[in-house]
Amino acid sequence: MKKTFDLTQQKLPMPRAIEAIKYEVKKYLKRERNKLLPEGVDFWDFDCRFGVDEASSEVIHISAINKCISEAEVKELESFYLEILAKSGHRTKKPVE
């Protein structure tokens, strides 16, 4: 998902629009995680970027998406860019001490 969310032209009030965006992101992540894993892959991992626009977006962790969206509401941004790309993940064993 590579998308610029516009917060100014919503039919919904700002807090409700933010919740709708968070729900859309959550639904996308669930849909991607439910896809069939390729052979040799343990789980779906995600590369995420967030920013005011695509050029100024920064890499974030998947767990920080909701926090960044909430910060966009506090800063009263007109729009923000969110990129979530699925990639294959491989678990590593913890070293035994």
- Roughly what percent helix? 25-40%
Overall SS class: alpha+beta
Helix and strand succession? EHEEHE
How would a crystallographer describe the biggest sheet?
Answer: 4 strands, antiparallel
How many alpha or pi helices?
2
Round the Cα radius of gyration to an integer and report it.
16 Å
Strand and helix map with partners:
Layout lengths: L1 E5 L7 H20 L9 E9 L6 E3 L4 H10 L4 E11 L8
Antiparallel strand pairs: 1-4, 2-3, 2-4
Explain the overall architecture.
The protein has helices at residues 14-33, 65-74; strands at 2-6, 43-51, 58-60, 79-89. By secondary structure, it is of the alpha+beta class. Strands 1-4-2-3 form a four-stranded antiparallel beta sheet, with helices on one face. A hairpin with a 6-residue loop joins β2 and β3. The model has no long low-confidence stretch (mean pLDDT 93).
Short description:
The chain has 97 residues and is α+β, with helices and mostly antiparallel strands. 31% of the residues lie in helices and 29% in strands.
What are the salient characteristics of this protein?
31% helix, alpha+beta, four-stranded antiparallel sheet, single chain, 97 residues, 29% strand
